[in-house]
């Protein structure tokens, strides 16, 4: 782990450490936190310890600006949820909020300073077509996806193509499960929906149950090849575990649910790297119970080497000579986990050709003089 990554992690764990930092170190801290989407989270971490006044003016103003942006995003998320409810509730379509919107609407500690730009929801598979038509009638539509992309999402993915509101330009991801149907793990979306918890004062709006929320956080992080916000998501997981884990019965329920939902492997990774990066307290019995869900022991040093680089902030001061290779291998891994090779290889070839054609310079038509 590079010194720049360690600087951010140490500050998140021990915010009082800023007292001994030079101005150059604080400048690097702000830059790394910004690329990790943790600038606003860092602001609230320091505010909780009443340390903001001990920061020099310029780094403090950067953190304050990030906190303002996060607050605005939360207001927009609440408005979008109200608009979704207004559109789907008359149709009898329940909404389960996921990730950032769920944290905000449920008032969870991990929502403080959480930056996000889209709203994710889960709806029953049987209502997906009606939900899409209703959302279209209310201004949400897909934009910029060709026929192949549309077919790919609808046949092989766990969500519709992202929807953009025609006026507000807000982005909505509509899921019918949490992993592609072609992925190796097969979590039952019906169980997620039946265990979801209704929000107070919001009819037919739910969030996942605590164990399922943790499992979804870990699954999203360790099955996704886009790790630009990987450390932010790991900080989310740490906060969820710290919040729900205060109840002793949560831990055995989490392990049992992980095996029941076929998600023990991503939970193994989530707890392993939350402990490694953030020193998240995890009961020893939980670690022992999940050990059999991890990769073979000879492979664990290799997997650790990949994720210690892939989860680090994507800042050049956080990279070493192998960081780019590690991220590429994790990207390939995520696609391999998503679908079998006989589907994956044609898909990647098609996407590569399409990207090459898009990047190819277009001829310029010169008018006769």
Description:
It is a single chain. With 369 residues, the protein is α/β, with parallel strands linked by helices. It has a single domain (3-355), classed as Beta Polymerase, domain 2 (2-Layer Sandwich), CATH 3.30.460. Helix content is 56%, strand content 7%. The chain is built from 16 helices and seven strands.
The CATH topology comes to Beta Polymerase, domain 2
Q: CATH first level: which class?
A: Alpha Beta
The number of distinct structural domains comes to 1
Q: Element order, helices and strands?
A: HHHHEHEHEHEEHEEHHHHHHHH
Please state the CA-atom Rg, rounded to the nearest Å: 22 Å
Average residue pLDDT = 91
User: How much of the polypeptide forms β-strand, as a percent range?
Assistant: 5-15%
Query: Strand pairing plus helix content: what structural class?
Result: alpha/beta
Basic shape = globular
Major β-sheet annotation: 7 strands, mixed
Query: Strands of the largest sheet, in order across it?
Result: 3-4-5-2-1-7-6
The helix count comes to: 16
Are there runs of 5+ residues with pLDDT below 50, and where? Answer: none
Give the distance, in angstroms, between the N- and C-terminal Cα atoms.
61 Å
Into which percent range does the helicity of residues fall? 55-70%
Q: What is the β-strand count? A: 7
